[in-house]
Structures are given as structure tokens and as C-alpha cells.
Design brief:
alpha+beta, elongated, four-stranded antiparallel β-sheet, 18 helices
């Protein structure tokens, strides 16, 4: 924010200086305007790229805790990247708070993303150290032992929250060095490599960092980490606790040292998970002062303590820019040179007399299809309009969401905000979907406009909602927190039916009221026959190869997005994402225009579906890539894991297919109207 403020202040000074010269000097004014525009462009570019590093969170206020004041700790759903099935924390034999668990207030986005935040039994007070405090004792039954061991085997992690900060995981590397991970929580236990027995982490060292802001009374929490340990606790003197009497909370434990925090070296045996085992849960609380300001406390979480260097993302940007520059040069060198020659030749030919035309060689090239190039698609013209309109809606929604995330309005610190924003913007962009599909359908002279508008409003959202409800029903049988409550399903359905669909019809109303798209040529009654193409000019060959270039421009950043999506990692570099997104769309447009030009030169006037599938084939490469990336999950053998991953990846790739297809189609339409508008047709 300071950087942006300084840039804004410098920009204001520069503007004042530029405007201080002679008002009559035209060249001076032009230079001043040019410098202003360059300054504005630089400020915008820096804001987008640096937005990923500005961690001011609108709508979140800091809280100062007085010394001794309770600092609530909450627990979220248990998660596992191997199963993709989040579970309720209190389904496992853990300590429950007095009066039972109580749900924290959650927004719609949190429910849709599988969050279930509840209070906990841990008692934490500001600046009050805790040493090996007994929390509770649980005697494992046969079912509880099997259930707990199963979840340890599947690699489930705890996700704790203190003052809206997720708990980082502190552990040991293979060389015995301490290492901290700031995303994904910490494991609930481990499996011994030799005996394959399960051991539970029944002791945690809770490390909290605080900062004293100037001019404020109290302290702010700026760091939260958890070091889990497995300790086979035994009470001193052979005391046997029933887990209920208050006497057990004060009895000393053999592994604990008075007024000293637990260290791994003092552990003599681990806590085994077996029937009849008495698991005593304990915890330490350590407070450490930190110079980290409250506004910057999320820095280390989002950057994962610089585990992934920024150079990797810059490599992604550089890779994408090089691809689009190479493609742009190719398009310019081929299209501009060839089009100038073609247009000049066609116009010179039209100026000749009939006798001179007979002496000239027979015409060839894209001008020959002028009477058919704007003929509506011969197959499913209504479906074509629906797909293009839906793609325009999803593409605009994605651009607005990424842009707002890049400037800091949608942050991981506000759980569920990204999902909520996607839903809201998708609904609002329904007007654009109805407008685009109706304008196209009107230009095709279609008559079933009600059906076209209804399909635009329901086809892709209906597919998403049907798959979501199907998976939601299955997840309910697994008692997963990813299963959305019925009331929230009704809310989503109401948003779709009462807001999204009416907005699509509103956009379609204005689309049908507007004038039909004008084409520079007249379409003939009988379609021209298409000559047999060579192998490389076959539409199927062009479609299968076209998506490779846009995918190559975005695959590096796609890896980080997939990691964040399926491995519970934070993703925050939305500035880079915005640039890659723009490059992806530009690349799709350029590839499609180039391929459509060659199809027209081969006298193939059926370019509508060809343009859509050519740029849309990027989604096919993304889906194929997801098969290879799936191996990094080390997924469990549960069928539901495969169904969830590939089902939702299918939906994501379907959205990419619609977006890239719509961009390629609309760009090709603009290009073809332009080139046929520059020639003289008899």
C-alpha cells in the first residue's frame, strides 16, 4: 500500500510538472499526455504484479488482547490430499469442549469449500505460558482405534485456527532439522515404517507470536504454529485416572518436567493406537515476541516462507510472453503480408473489364467463399450460440475475479470469499451471456429465441449443479464436511433460478432488440462445395494441434493452481495469474485467426465450429495434463477420490473449453468481417 501511495504521489507531481508549460505548445501537450498514459500504465502493471504482495485485507480488523485475556482456538475440518474427503474434527476420539462443540458463523463460500469451524477444548490466554497441561483422557474402543488408525493411514491433517491464523506445522526433516510448513495443517499421527503400527499425536506444543503495536493497549497475535508429538503418557506413582475426576488434571506425568516445555528428546515411548489404550491428550503454550506487524502476518503463510522462489513465477510469465511474442510475430508476418497481397490482387481484379478478366488466371483463395463465409453453422446453430454466450459469461467472470484478487479484495485470509465472489460475478455476468448468444442467434436468423435463451441460462449451470448435487449426495453417505447442507443447496438453487436466469433473459432482451450483425457480403442460396483438403489442412488436424500453443503458454502457472486446488496450499500470486490469463486468451485468439485464414484459403467456408473447437482444444490438453498431475496426489484406492478429482476437473476443463472457444470464435468473426469488408465483391 505504501508503494502504491508513493507511486500515486509521484504520478501526481509528474502530472503537475507536465501541465506547467506553455498551453499553446501542441507538441508539449502531446508529450505530457504520452507521459501521463505511460505513468498510468506503469502504475496499473505494478499494482497487478505487486498486488500479490500487498496483504492488507479489507473488512478484517485487528484485535488487541489484554494480558490474561482468553485467545480462542478453533478447529476446522480434518483434510487429506490422498482422499479429498474432509471430515468433522470431532468424529475422531479427540477431546471435546465443555458443553459440546459449537459451530462458528460461516459464509456460503466456506460451506461450499468443505470448511466446518468449531470451538475447541484448549484454553489459551494472552502471554500465559502453559506446561504439559492435561486436556482429557480417551480410552479407545475397538471401533475408535480402527477408525483413528484408518485416518492416520490416509494422512489426515488437523487444521487449527487462532485469531483467523491457520496453524503452521513444525516437524523434523530426514536430517533432524526443524522445518515449518504454513499450509495444509499438521498430521494427526504417523505410521511406523518397521512395524506399520499407527501412533497418534496426543501432545502439541502451541507456539504463538505476538506484537505490541504503538499507541495501542494489549497485544496482537501475529504467528501461530503447532509442533505435534506422540507420547505414551503414564501418571507418576502408577496413578490410574478414569478421565472424569478433577484429580487427574493436576496429577504429574512421567514424561513432563515441571515448568519446562516438552522437547522431543525426553520422549521415551510413543502413544500407540490400539483397543483399550488410554490416550492422554496434553499441550504446551509458548509465547514469543515478534517484530512482524499485524498487517504483514500473512506474508509467511502465503509465500510458504519463500519455499517457492518468486523467480519460478517470473519464469512462468517469461515463458508465456515469449510464446505470445513468437506467435504474434508469426501472425503478423503471415497474415499481414499475405492479406495485403490478396486484397490488392482481388481489388485489382475487380477493376478489370470482362475481357481482361478472362485473360487472367482463374481466381483462387479466400475470396471465392465470400458468398458462403457468413452462412450460419450447418450443424446445431442454436447450440453454437449457447456455447459462445456461456463462454463469454465464464471468461468475464474469471477476469473480474482474478483482477479483484490481484488487488487484494479476495484473500485467503477471508475463507470462502473467493468461492462466494465467483458465484456472485458468474450470476451478474449472465446478462452478457444472454446478450452474446441472442446477437449471434439473431444473425443466424433463428426463430426459437426463447429456447436459445433458456439453454444459455441453464445448460452449463445445470450441468455443474447436477454433478455437484450428485457428489454432494455421495459425500453425505461418507459423512464428509464437503457435503453441503440442504439449506445451502436451496440458497444456491435460489440464486440460480431467481437471479442468474432472469439476468440472462434480460441480456437476451437487449440482444434481440439491437440491430442484427451486418455482414459485408451476401450469402448465396446454395452452399458452395468444399474441395478435398490435404492432410495438414484437414480441420481435425488443425483442431488437435491448435490447443498445444495456448497450453504451453500457461502450463507452468497451471501447476501452482492445481497444487493449491488439490493439495490445500495457499495461492496468492493473482497478479501473475491475471497476466497469464490475458496471455492465454491472446494466444487462443491468434492461433484461431491464423488457422481460420488457412481454412478459408483452402476454400472451406465452415469456420464457425472449427474456430470454436480449435481454441477450445486447450481444455483437452489441460484435461490430459490432469491425468499426469494426479500421480503427485498419491491418491487412496477409494473410488470416490477418483470420482471427485476427475469429475471436478472435467467441469473445470469444460469451463476452459467454453472460455477459449468463445474467444477464438469472436476474434475470428471480427477478423473475417474485416478482411471481407476490404475487398470489392461482384
Amino acid at each position: 500500500n505504501t508503494t502504491h501511495c508513493l507511486l500515486g504521489r509521484c504520478f501526481g507531481q509528474r502530472t503537475a510538472e507536465d501541465g506547467g508549460g506553455s498551453t499553446n505548445d501542441t507538441s508539449t501537450r502531446k508529450m505530457a499526455n504520452l507521459r501521463r498514459r505511460l505513468a498510468q500504465a506503469s502504475v496499473l502493471a505494478v499494482s497487478l504484479l505487486q498486488g500479490a504482495r500487498a496483504f492488507y485485507i479489507p473488512g478484517v480488523r485487528p484485535h488487541e488482547f489484554a494480558q490474561g485475556e482468553e485467545v480462542p482456538m478453533k478447529v476446522n475440518s480434518l483434510t487429506s490430499i490422498h482422499t479429498q474427503l474432509p471430515k468433522d474434527y470431532y468424529r475422531l476420539p479427540f477431546c471435546q469442549p465443555t458443553g459440546g462443540p459449537k459451530m462458528a458463523s460461516e459464509n456460503l463460500g466456506e460451506f461450499l469449500t468443505g470448511n466446518k469451524i468449531q470451538n475447541s477444548a484448549y484454553s489459551i490466554n494472552m502471554l500465559r505460558e502453559v506446561y504439559c497441561q492435561v486436556l482429557c483422557q480417551v480410552t479407545l474402543s475397538k471401533v475408535e482405534a480402527l477408525f483413528l488408525a484408518k485416518h492416520i493411514k490416509y494422512g489426515y491433517h488437523n487444521n487449527w485456527i487462532v485469531d483467523n491464523l491457520p496453524g503452521a506445522s513444525v516437524g523434523l526433516t530426514g536430517t533432524g532439522q526443524h522445518q515449518t510448513h504454513y499450509a495444509g495443517g499438521f498430521p494427526i499421527g504417523f505410521i511406523a515404517q518397521d512395524t506399520k503400527e499407527a501412533y497418534v499425536y496426543n501432545h502439541v506444543n502451541i507456539v504463538l507470536e505476538y506484537h505490541n503495536p504503538e499507541g495501542k493497549e494489549g497485544s496482537r497475535v501475529v504467528g501461530f504454529a503447532v509442533e505435534p508429538m506422540s507420547i505414551g503418557h503414564q501418571f507418576s506413582g502408577g496413578y490410574q485416572w478414569d478421565g472424569v475426576s478433577s484429580e487427574g488434571f493436576t496429577k504429574p506425568l512421567e514424561a513432563c518436567v515441571t515448568n519446562q516445555h516438552m522437547v522431543r528428546d525426553s520422549i521415551s515411548q510413543f502413544q500407540r493406537v490400539a483397543q483399550g489404550e488410554n490416550v492422554v491428550y496434553t499441550y504446551d503454550v509458548t509465547w514469543r515476541y515478534s517484530e512482524t506487524a499485524w498487517a504483514s502476518r500473512w506474508d509467511v503463510y502465503l509465500s510458504e516462507d519463500h519455499m517457492v522462489p518468486a523467480q519460478v513465477h517470473w519464469y512462468s510469465i517469461t515463458n508465456s510472453i515469449l510464446v505470445v511474442l513468437f506467435l504474434s510475430l508469426l501472425v503478423v508476418s503471415i497474415l499481414v503480408r499475405n492479406l495485403r497481397r490478396d486484397i490488392a490482387g482481388y481489388n485489382a481484379m475487380s477493376a478489370l473489364t470482362d475481357e481482361e478478366k478472362e485473360e487472367e488466371a482463374e481466381e483462387s483463395g479466400w475470396k471465392l467463399v465470400h458468398a458462403d463465409v457468413f452462412r450460419p453453422p450447418h450443424t446445431l446453430p442454436m447450440a453454437f450460440c449457447v456455447l459462445v454466450g456461456s463462454g463469454a459469461q465464464i471468461g468475464t467472470c474469471g477476469m473480474v475475479t482474478i483482477a479483484l484478487s490481484a488487488v487484494g479484495f479476495l484473500s485467503p485470509a477471508r475463507r470462502g470469499s473467493l468461492m462466494t465472489a465467483i458465484l456472485v460475478f458468474y450470476m451478474l455476468c449472465g446478462c452478457l451471456a444472454g446478450y452474446v448468444s441472442s446477437r449471434l442467434y439473431k444473425s443466424f436468423r433463428g426463430r426459437q429465441w426463447q429456447m436459445c435463451t433458456l439453454l444459455t441460462a441453464t445448460a452449463f449451470p445445470g450441468l455443474c449443479f447436477a454433478i455437484f448435487v450428485f457428489f454432494n449426495t455421495i459425500l453425505a453417505f461418507f459423512r464428509s464436511t464437503a457435503s453441503v447442507p440442504f439449506l445451502d443447496l436451496l440458497i444456491v438453487a435460489a440464486m440460480w433460478c431467481c437471479i442468474s436466469i432472469p439476468l440472462v433473459f434480460l441480456g437476451a432482451y437487449f440482444g434481440y432488440k439491437a440491430e442484427a450483425l451486418s455482414y459485408p457480403t451476401v450469402t448465396s442460396t446454395i452452399a458452395r462445395a468444399i474441395p478435398e483438403p490435404t492432410f495438414f489442412m484437414k480441420p481435425s488436424v488443425g483442431i488437435s494441434l491448435a490447443g498445444m500453443v495456448p497450453f504451453a503458454a500457461a502450463y507452468v502457472e497451471l501447476f501452482f493452481i492445481m497444487t493449491s486446488l488439490w493439495m490445500d496450499q495457499f495461492y496468492y500470486v493473482f497478479g501473475f495469474t491475471f497476466v497469464v490469463y490475458i496471455i492465454l486468451l491472446v494466444t487462443c485468439a491468434e492461433v484461431t485467426v491464423l488457422l481460420c485464414y488457412y481454412q478459408l484459403c483452402a476454400e472451406n467456408h465452415r469456420w464457425w465450429w472449427f474456430a470454436f473447437f480449435s481454441s477450445g482444444s486447450t481444455a483437452a490438453y489441460t484435461f490430459i495434463y490432469s491425468f499426469f498431475w494426479f500421480q503427485s496426489l498419491e491418491a487412496s484406492k477409494m473410488l470416490i477420490t477418483y470420482m471427485l478429482y476427475f469429475g471436478y476437473m472435467f467441469l473445470i476443463c469444460s469451463g476452459i473449453f467454453l472460455v477459449t472457444g468463445a474467444v477464438g470464435t469472436l476474434t475470428s468473426l471480427w477478423f473475417i468481417r474485416k478482411i471481407f469488408g476490404t475487398i470489392k465483391v461482384d
